Amino acid sequence: MKEDTSFRRSENKFIVLEHTFDEIIEELEKHIPIHSFSTEYPLSLIETIYLEDSDFTTLKEYLSRRKFRFKIRFRCYGHNGKLDENDFWAELKIKQKSISYKKRFKLTKELLIPYISGENIYDKVHKMNEGVKGFKKIYKLTKELIKLNNLEPTLVTSYERVAFQSKNKSIRITVDRNISHKSYQNPAINKKLKAIVLESKISGKIPKWYKAEESKLALLPQKRFSKYATGINLIYFPARGMYNFYTNYAETEVMGNKTYNSLKLIEQSLKLKKPMKIKI
Fold first, then answer.
1. Domain ranges across the chain
2. Half-sphere CA count of 240, side-chain side, radius 13 A
3. Considering only CA atoms, which of 126, 131, 127, 112 is closest in space to residue 72?
């Protein structure tokens, strides 16, 4: 049986200011088990490389509240303060109305630049993705989107995470700390986000304990929050402020040809359950 590396989720994000990281973990452990690939090190280290074009179109699409949009990132996981470059993924994240879809396949970090540059590395990564459902389709689609939009590595974000997941997988909660951002081209330009971020994904009925913990932990719900957007603001547009997601220049209905063609390509390739009429 092939591994399904696609995810369909409804997400809620919170900022936690009144409690420490350890206090949050202690409270959540009363209700839901920690989910980690390493029982020895439940705290994961995550590093993400985001792609963007020279006009920051991905950011503008986010700020403009486009109901249908995408971004491409490369993610590496690790434990005990060290990244495992063998645990490296190419990810296409799609937002369609309130639902997020994530399509991904395995890669090696040394093949990142060749892949982004358009080299044919299919034979090099085919074996490591033999168990990944839909690998060939997502490999080809992501490659075409990178070329169509002239995307390049722009932002590197890293943080520590503890994840919780119910046995039936209907509830997943992640808690992130030590979030830092740096320029991909100039790593000396780096900033830290002084906040703990909690994200919950719940399908079905919300349990009473979760509602109680929302209040007890004084979770501050975020109508809009993105590590990517805070990182771009901090590194490339510091004068705007890291949480400024409501700038006037981005509040427009105009869609560029590249974005339009990209969304049509995604719809045709993935045959999403709720196709949308895309207007240029």
1. 7-11+43-168+181-193+226-270
2. 19
3. 112
